[in-house]
Amino acid sequence: MTEHLTVVDHPLIQHKLTLMREKETSTAVFRQCLREISALLAYEITRNLAMTTKRIETPLCEMDAPVLDGKKLALVSILRAGNGLLDGMLDLVPSARVGFVGLYRDEETLTPVEYYFKVPDALEDRLVIAVDPMLATGNSSAAAIDKLKEAGAKNIRFMCLLAAPEGVARMKEAHPDVPIVTAALDSHLNELGYIVPGLGDAGDRMFGTK
Ligand code: URA
Questions:
Q1: Any catalytic annotation for residue 58?
Q2: Domain Phosphoribosyltransferase: where (predicted)?
């Protein structure tokens, strides 16, 4: 991918996203829309995967048919809300390997601290797609990508549902080599760090917590 930020402005995505933004939308509908949008975003973020050919026999003749080249993709969820994007992506790429990065913010130093890290092997040979629905300040996403690079990842893309300009700028500064794919670029962050207009707390809305 060449663009640093791709906003996937597709009618189906935008319609489902509106349902997700509405505050009265149920947990079940929120989850279902997230699953469907994440599959559509996965379609876009995997558009230019490396291909090769394989000799096959159709009922009529032999042919060199296109197949994906290289090692299986690694999808990495940034906990906990990233998990909401996994199911839809795995619907589309069922053989992908899956990893998890858990970070919390130390309230004294305000720096991200890792509490969980488990990723597929041979990260350096895979396309790694890190996922988190909300790119808000960008601090935790940038820190998660630092960890993935430390673990060997060289080819990383980032997929989210909503991005704030502040988060995009932070990622561009920290990781200019990591393209971002999102369903929408919203207006700004409020004083509490929420994306506006946004959809509220994505984790709470997808898991039905408060
Ligand atoms: N995380 C969320 O879940 N929502 C926001 O608006 C910002 C960060």
A1: no
A2: 7-209
Q: For residue 164, what are the domain limits? A: 5-48+68-207
User: Residues near 10 by Cβ (< 8 Å), separated by ≥ 6?
Assistant: 40
**CA dist list (Å): 207 to 25, 34, 38, 175:** 13, 12, 16, 30
54 found inside a domain? no
pTM, two decimals, is 0.95
Closest protein CA for atom 3 of ligand 1: 201
Active-site residue, 105 included: yes
| Mutational test site, ligand 1, from 20, 195, 196, 207, max ligand atoms within 8 Å of CB | 195
Asked if ipTM goes beyond 0.85, one says yes
Structural domain tally of the chain?
1
Q: In this structure, what CATH number is given to the domain that contains residue 117?
A: 3.40.50.2020
Answer yes or no: is 53 within a domain: no
